[in-house]
Amino acid sequence: MQIVVASTNPVKMNASLLGFQQMFPAQTWEVQGLSVPSLVRDQPLSDAETLLGATNRAHGARQARPTADFYVGIEGGVEQLADGTMSVAAWVVVLNRDGLHGKSKTGTYFLPLEVSRLVESGLELGEADDRVFGGENTKQKNGSVGLLTGDVLDRQGYYISAVIMALIPFKNPHLTFG
Question: How many whole angstroms from its chain centre is CA 34?
């Protein structure tokens, strides 16, 4: 079974593969990464924009590779809350070639002011993290969540549970999901 992930980021590709393998262990899975535009800002600044980006990526992957079995869009974003804090979450959207879809959201965590100020100034979260923590290309490694948890939870692990939850409609085809 072929999964097309709407990203060439190895973290997103591996998280998708591991999520599918855990939900459907009897299947043999092949994952392919494909660069697909989100059609939203490089750094989504709201929950709605983040969901739209994940949805656009999944649909774009399906249009580009219509013969695959599944398509995964993963989009991370931030949101400034009324109290001045900035939260982080990602959306996962999974489609199959027949039009069935599932979606899920990761857990939410909050950024330190040193990072959120850089994001507010226009940097993507990954670049802001690299500047504050002295890393390089951390968004393709442990990510913000890994940096902040001391790698107790890295970016890949953060995405896996959301991929699994986005697969719930596919695991339960006898039920109706909106």
Answer: 14
Percent of the chain, pLDDT > 90? 93
CATH code (residue 20):
3.90.950.10
Q: Which residue has the tokens 């996962």?
A: 92
Domain limits at 33?
Answer: 2-108+154-171
The DSSP secondary structure of 118-172, one letter per residue, reads HHHTT--HHHHHHHHHT-SSGGGTTHHHHHHHTTSS-HHHHHHHHHHHHTHHHH-
Is residue 119 one of the residues assigned to a domain?
Answer: no
Per residue in 84-104, pLDDT (tens digit) is 999 999 999 999 998 899 999
116 within some domain: no
Which pair of tokens denotes residue 21? 């393998």
Task: For residues 24 and 169, give the distance between their C-alpha atoms in angstroms, rounded to a whole number.
Answer: 13
User: Is residue 69 within 8 Å of residue 2, measured between CB atoms?
Assistant: yes
Residue 128 counted as domain residue = no
d(CA 125, CA 116): 8
What residues pair up with 102 in beta bridges, in sequence order?
Answer: 94
Angstrom distance (rounded) from CA 57 to CA 71: 9
Q: Output the pLDDT for position 178.
A: 78
